[in-house]
User: Fold these one by one.
Assistant:
Number 1:
Amino acid sequence: MNLGKGKLYGPLFALSFICAGGLLSTAALADTEATFVLPSSQAGATSLDPIRSSLVTLADGLIYDRLVDQDANQTFHPHLATRWETTADGMSWTFHLREGVTFHDGEPFNAQTIAWWIPKFAGTENAFLVSAIDKVEVVDDHTVHFVMKHPDTNLLYNLSSGFMGVPSPKAYDAEGTDYGVKVAVGTGPYKLESIAIGSEAVLVRNPDYTWGGPLSANKGPAKIDKLTLREIADSSTAFLEFKTGGVDLVIDVPSDILAQYKTLDNATIKSQSGFGIYYMPINTTVEPFTDLKVRKATALAINQKEIVDRLFGGKGRAAHNFLIASLPESKVDPTLNISYDPAQAKALLDEAGWKMGSDGIRVKNGKALSVTLVTQSDTEFKRLTEVIQAQLKAVGINAKISVFDSSSIRAEYKKGTQQLAVRSYGWNNADILDWFFSAERLGYPNVSMWKDAKAEALRTKALTGSKTQEERAANFLAYHEYVLSQYPFAPIYEPEQSMVFDKERLVLPAKIDGPQFTAQTVLDISIKE
Amino acid sequence: MTSYFIRRLLAMIPVFFVVSGVVFLIVHMVPGDPVDNMMSVGASANQRAEIIARYGLDRSLIEQYLTWLNNIVHGDLGTAIVMRRPVADLIMSNLGHSLALGGWALMFSAVAGLLAGTIAASFQDRWIDHGLMGVSLLGSTVPTFWLGLLMIMLFAVELGWVPVSGARSWTSLILPVITVGLGGMALVARVTRISMVEIAREDFVMLLHAKGLSRWTIQLRHILRHALIPVVTILSLRIGLIVGGSVTVEYVFARPGLGSLLIRALAQRDYPLIQGCLLFLAIAVMLGTLLGDLLQAAMDPRQREDSAQ
């Protein structure tokens, strides 16, 4: 058809107006999107099945809700459970469940869900989370009763763990062992759209969500329609993605790259208090560390402040005992806290018979004070260990560094021949004391090879002899104080958790209310208009 | 040709068994085990023993090896201990990415290397020859990790032509392919150049010149064909690298792949997964060399005659 030129213009203009109008309206309805970078500790998750997985990520935290949530002070708040009671002997718990909660597939969340859920852990590697529960009784649609085999003062902590997000029974049973690979159904503020293992997970908002917990200001549906959670192993690549606008928020930023982010105008850095401790276990069964004075001297030789200022740019804080500062069990008797005191260290070594030699190394009975210092092959560990080697030299201890990769080092620890080591852990519960100092786990995790009858008595009392949480905290405090008095380790550093977000795209709540960056914070994040 | 092919395939079987034995031994001899990588704080003291019993890690090495081999022959690669998914699933989900990156990188290094080598040989000892050889040398000696970051900073950040990282679209494949391909290009370019220079001295080339053919026809239609033979040998050896050899590039560009999977499995001592990945890589290398030999036999009649005798 041969339209004259002039006759073509009219329809063309009309068409372009219609298109423009169409584009404008779709722009107004366009989904709000954001991309977050997961921390490296959450990389490599192979499925979104919290019951069977060995690793849970923020994706699990957003797809599933938990009965209980934890805040930044490590205290517990109701979420899917509105309140709970326990008997004085701790042998029975009653949980009252929130009403009106549904799974993404429309199934209702009620007491039957819990009765199905707890037994599902049997036979999995996560079974220890519910091992104290003997059976679950359904009282009514929204009340469950746990009959316990023995008191479990850690029950609320376990219930708030990412492994105890509640999946939909119908979807879980339908998918079988493939659950969590393509399908993951929970009650959370986000639904799973797609997941590329090892690369990214794409989540879409759950529009029916109205049961946000007390730790989120926003109780209703999330403000971001589509959330992509990416795994980027290299921190430089994550930085470049942030710079080009490819990602909007990086959850865990190592301290050495923070300076780079500060050069960007749109980057805002937010910090949370620490989630772990760097420390130096001292092998109590090997000479010269069988002598308490030598152990104490070694611990007092570590200049924590210098390490914080020089190695970590002043970020984080010096550690003076074995627990993170936000835990109540870290508030030990101040005289027991371990701090830098080179004068006392030197005096103690002199008392123990180690006299300063001419080359700056102490000598006793013709033997020089030469010890092995074992560490992991990651850069930050190597640098830290070199600084510690220098600090030990300053009081006359000659430390020789050996480096191993993270799996070989455990085999090495089990031989029990190491003298000193530099390690770290990431955990926000006092039972880490049991994990690392229990005489039942000599070698690894008990790198200090510490076996002490009084310690064992205090430990068992704290772990299994407490009936209430208050009792547990008091018993762990007592155990912690005894551990400190025997110097099986030297505390070094408590790193703070830093995250970076694009302030021109996102608005974050003033305080991140959780032990780490968790789902309850994501619910309050909105896109800037 | 077919009998040659079948004979070579059958010869792979004993090699396969030897490789599986070596892989199994090495993995189990290295200190460390997967159990500690799986236990989290709060696990009971006897959970170690339970996990060891469940995965049969307390049985003798011979017994474990034979069980594993038996399963392999029946097509079951087992289940990863730490990652808790079937090994075959894990490999399959990562294989596509590795094949894409490795395949395109191989093609890039082949094409770019042949081009560079031909041009260098044609302008031998002039500045373009030295320039091309210098660039290809840089490409192979500069660490891929560093090269990758540099390419991101230039093409993705400054110029904004391609995405920085990830595996979402085909555009995110461009920079990783060039980074890996530049590394493989050097050898191909040098071998092409040297073999073209050598073949140019042969008597038949002098005859072609005497016949009056143009210089470029001789270079491309006659000499290049002969020069391709050693190049095919080199490329066939690199085929095995396609599948597992780009670990640092996968790390920098945040791409999933078999290389990263293997490294993570190694760090966690996830025995079934390491064994499965290594076996896979070994088969890839064996098939790659077989393919190269077949191509050579197809291209070079002298090879076929030799093997037929």
Number 2:
Amino acid sequence: MKAREMNKKQNKGQVILIAVLAMALILLSTQIYVFEVQMSTINLNSNPLNDYLFAIKLGSRNVVIGSIANVSGGGSHTVFVANLDKWVALVDKQNQFGRSTLNYTMEETAPYMSGIWLFWGTEGFGVTSASAHFTFNLSDRGVDADLSYFINITTTLMVEGTYRTMGADEKEVNVTFNLLNEGKSALADQFTLYYQVLGSWLVPNASNNYAVSDYGNGTYRASFRASISSPNVEVSVRIRDQREVLVQANATCSQV
Amino acid sequence: MGTFILKMISNNKGQIRTIEAFLAISVMFSVLVLTAPMSSTPDFEKQGTLKKLGTNVLIELDNNGTLGRLIEGGNWTILKQSMDLLLPTGVFYNLTVYDENLQRVNTQEVSNTNQQGLEAVVIQYLCVTQSSDTRFYTIQLQLAWPQ
């Protein structure tokens, strides 16, 4: 009996050591658990990958805008391909989130040709448009993202005109035109109105009582007086939107 | 002889207890030392927030083509003012623009700090100008919060 009590007393130190070891294990596992939970919360809350994908889409859009601005200003249609190739090469070099691969195909469905559609009509309608399909792939350990998107940049111009005969060849002309970006009203950066006299296009000025009203919603109204002998009053509007995309449309004014 | 050994053992008992206590303390201490770096790992949440903030600012500027126009026109002062305006007060930044050949483009510092050694996050952003003369730039934005 006495020996057992002695043994108990002698083992007391070992029990303390075991208890300490157990406490240490609990502390360690708690810390590891807290760390893991923190890491998973971070992954859920802030995902910079989404921003990266959005930035790639935005860059693609800017490439299309820049290219169509160039082509509409008289540049070669090959500019579009050249710019897209440069953009693809630049994106493919990015390795922030893994291996990036960007591919594109230009819109070939009519009326598009090599991704471009330019229609500067004579019946009050003009359109300048560029379009391309993109596929983006991002692959890395634990990340495999595929993104397909379509970019279409379209600047549309609609022109309507009326005229009143003021006496002999003198005519008062009113021209209303609307500018649209992707079907929504857009503001012009610059525009020029022309009228035709004996086959030549002239620009009205102060001597023609030229006045323009800007309605602030992409609608503009211009009026002027001019001596036009022809019974058909032909006008033309050449307009550049705020993205530098140029569009033009001609219209025959109707008499009121 | 037997009583002598027993006496010796009971005399050393105190020392053994002391050794055991030392052992226990050293185990606890080593666990604390081991787990301390874990709790002081870089603040990923802070870094994630900074990255998101920086990317959003650049996207905001790039959305209507302003970023490309400012770079193309070399308007570094206006770019700096825009960054000052869009980033929260107290966030340090340093922005560098590189062209397609990875040559530095900005002739002036676009930065609100000269502090070295801050724990910073780096954002790499690709910018394309909307102009008819399309240009491609790589922007490197470093962001840090004061420690």
